[in-house]
Amino acid sequence: MSRLQVQASVDERDFMVDLEVDEGSTVAVLGPNGAGKSTLLGVISGLLRPDRGRVELGDRVLTDTASGAAVPPHKRSVALLAQQALLFPHLTALDNVAFAPRSAGKRRRVAREAAMRWLKAVDAVEFADRTPHQLSGGQAQRIAVARALAADPELLLLDEPMAALDVATAPAVRSLLRRVLREDGRTALIVTHDPLDVLALADRVIVVEGGRIVEDGPVRRVLTRPRSTFGARIAGTNLLGGIVEADGLATEVGVVHGLVDDDCTAGTAAAAVFLPSAVAVYTEPPHGSPRNALCVEIGELEARGATVLVRASGGLTAEITTAAAAELTLEPGATVWFVIKATEIRIHRAA
Ligand SMILES: Nc1ncnc2c1ncn2[C@@H]1O[C@H](COP(=O)(O)OP(=O)(O)OP(=O)(O)O)[C@@H](O)[C@H]1O
After folding, report:
1. Complex ipTM, two decimals?
2. Which pLDDT does position 122 carry in this prediction?
3. Ligand 1: which of 14, 38, 159, 160 to mutate, judged by most atoms within 8 Å of the beta carbon?
4. How far is the CA of 33 from the centre of ligand 1 (A)?
5. For 238-349, which CATH class?
6. Buried b (16+ CB within 10 A) or exposed e, 99-130
C-alpha cells in the first residue's frame, strides 16, 4: 500500500485539486452531483488525462503532464470498484476473479487458486460456478470486490459501491468493505452520498464542490461540525461515539440504547446515529424513564422556517417545531433533556 499524491487540473471541467492520502488510510469523497468526484477518480485511475498535473503512488509517477508520463490504467496498480459490479457476463464468478491474476501473467491453476481464496474472503465460494446473470446485485458486488482485490492493488477507488444495492444488501457489502479496508490497511478513496459509509469506512473526509476541495478533515469533525454547505447537508445527523456494552453504547453522555447492528459485539468502537427530528426536548427530567434521556446544555437556536434547530453540548442537535420551541422558552445556556426513542437510534460499528 502506498501514499497517493494528486495535483491536477482539467480545464474543460473547471477542476483543480491538490490532494495527499496517507498510506493505509481511507478518504471519503463527498460532494453534490457534478462536483468533480468522478473526475478525481478518473484522473487517478488514468482514464482521464489532466491538462496539467501529476499523480504519484508510492515512488511511482503515474501521470506527469510536464514530462509526458502517463501509465495506462491497467498498469497503475489501482483498482476501481464502481456502482455496478461490471463483471464479464460470459465468465463464471471464479473466472471473473481469476482474470486479474491471469492478466498479471499467473498460470491458470495458480490464478484460480488465488481467486478461490478471494471468493472465500468475501463469503462467496458458493457462487464460484455461477455466471453474473445468476447473481443478485449484492452477490455480484461481492464478486466485484474479490476481483478488485485479487489484482492486489496498491490503491482502491470505490465509486459509490453501495448505491445500486437495496437496503437489505448494503450492510453486508459495507461490512465486507470495512473488513478489507481496515484489516489489510489499504489505501483507498470512496465516493459516497451516505454518512453511514463515511462513518463505517473512512478516517478522513474531503468535500468537493465546483471542482475544488472545499473541506478536508477527520470524519467526526466533518460529520458533526461541517464547514462547507454540502458537508452540512450530508451531515446534519447526530453522532455519538462510544464503546458497545451488553446494554447499549457507552458514550460520554451516558449509555445510549438503540437498534444495534449485528457486527457490534461488546467492546467494539461504534457510533449511535439519529436524526435531529427524532429528538424531543424537555425542560424537566422526563417521567416514566424513557430509554434515552440525555442531559445537555443549549448552545444556540437556529430558525429554519417552520422548525427550530436546537444546537446543544456534545455536538447534538434537535429539530423541533417553532411552536414547541416557543412553548418551551428555550435559550442558550439552559439545561434541557434530549429524549430519543430507542427505535430511532441506530448503532453502527465505527471505523
Ligand atoms: N465527459 C465529460 N466531458 C465534459 N465535461 C464533463 C464530462 N463528464 C463530466 N463533465 C463535467 O465535469 C464536472 C464534474 O463532473 P463529475 O462527473 O466529475 O462530477 P461528480 O461529482 O462525479 O458528479 P456525480 O455525483 O453526478 O457523479 C461537471 O461539471 C460535469 O458536467
Report:
1. 0.93
2. 83
3. 38
4. 8
5. mainly beta
6. bbbbeeebeeeebbebbbebbebbebeebbeb
